[in-house]
Design the sequence.
């Protein structure tokens, strides 16, 4: 067995591969680490055959959908997963064949309805069902403390005590534990009475994870994160530095249409001298009246440089092939002490 752990913050992803056939599965990949997974698999001489999410993650962005498209490899989840992009939906007890390895799914609802653990040889990937010294929480959408009790005490904890436990989260840098060790030491497993376990889980008073809304939205539907939207737009546009824009305005200003895509009140409070106002929200509807020459060079700017990136990508899609975005925004322009003009458009 070839085995790699990728730790990002508190998240854990695992590459597990068959030495004989070079086939591998990637478990719980995270969006920011896509290049790392592909590089690791290549370094180990593995070809990724399956992308597995142990459950619908609420605290980070799953990479399964994007990697599935890039590698033309199926995304695997439990059959209770709401995600429409899942190619292979497993029922508890079913096996995933990865070369000579057999990954057996165990349906373990509780943290989420679609949680599953995967047993392979001497180890079990427990997702957020069982963590080292903890369990997944049950207060997020589709969580159920009673179901988690059954999944643990009538499922995972009855597995071979020697099985190594590899969870989807670990915050203290421990590589793994074992079922036996968790039974003996995990504080949440010391209450084996169902009612007491449920009461404990319902009174943890945990704070909401950051990005919970966005993570659930994108992981459940296959929609894009805001960062993905921005980086996809940024990949299609060139940028101009603040200094270059300053020089352009000083020496060749007629060549360049400077477009302020913020709202009117922000524009009137202070804009780059000579800029025209065309708020991002009105761009498509007013473009034919405002920008009549598609061959003109257009520079879009906003307050921070994000909205203007989206606006420039839209302009390019509409045919303004010389549109560029300011690298930075009005905030950086002010901080550089460059000229600012207040008031309405001339
Ligand atoms: Fe989770």
Sequence:
């Amino acid at each position: 067995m070839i085995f790699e752990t990728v730790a990002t913050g508190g998240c854990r992803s695992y590459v597990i591969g068959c030495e004989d056939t070079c086939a591998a599965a990637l478990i719980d990949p995270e969006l920011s680490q896509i290049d790392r997974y592909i590089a690791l698999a290549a370094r180990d001489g593995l070809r990724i055959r399956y992308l597995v999410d142990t459950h619908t993650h609420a605290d980070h962005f799953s990479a399964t959908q994007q990697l599935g498209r890039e590698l033309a490899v199926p995304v695997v989840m439990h059959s209770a997963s709401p995600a429409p992009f899942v190619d292979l939906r497993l029922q508890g007890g079913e096996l995933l064949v990865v070369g000579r390895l057999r990954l057996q799914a165990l349906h373990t609802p509780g943290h989420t309805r679609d949680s599953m653990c995967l047993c392979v040889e001497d180890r079990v990937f427990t997702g957020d069902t069982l963590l080292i010294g903890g369990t997944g929480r049950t207060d997020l959408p589709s969580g159920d403390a009673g179901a988690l009790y059954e999944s643990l005490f009538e499922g995972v904890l009855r597995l071979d005590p020697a099985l190594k436990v590899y969870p989807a989260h670990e915050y203290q840098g421990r590589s793994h534990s074992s079922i036996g060790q968790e039974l003996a030491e995990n504080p949440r497993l010391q209450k084996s009475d169902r009612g007491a376990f449920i009461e404990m889980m319902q009174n943890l008073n945990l704070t909401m994870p950051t990005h919970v809304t966005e993570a659930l939205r994108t992981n459940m539907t296959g929609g894009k994160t805001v960062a993905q939207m921005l980086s996809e737009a940024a990949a299609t546009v060139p940028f101009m530095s603040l200094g270059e824009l300053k020089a352009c305005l000083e020496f060749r200003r007629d060549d360049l249409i400077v477009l302020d895509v913020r709202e009117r009140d922000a524009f009137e409070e202070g804009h780059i001298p000579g800029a025209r106002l065309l708020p991002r929200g009105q761009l498509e509807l007013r473009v034919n009246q405002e920008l009549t020459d598609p061959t003109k060079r257009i520079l879009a700017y906003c307050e921070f440089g994000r909205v203007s990136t989206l606006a420039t990508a839209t302009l390019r899609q509409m045919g303004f092939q010389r549109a560029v975005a300011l690298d930075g925004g009005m905030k950086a322009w002010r901080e550089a002490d460059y000229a600012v003009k207040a008031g309405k458009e001339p």
Observations:
- The chain has a mean pLDDT of 96.
- Residues 261 and 279 are 4 Å apart (CA to CA).
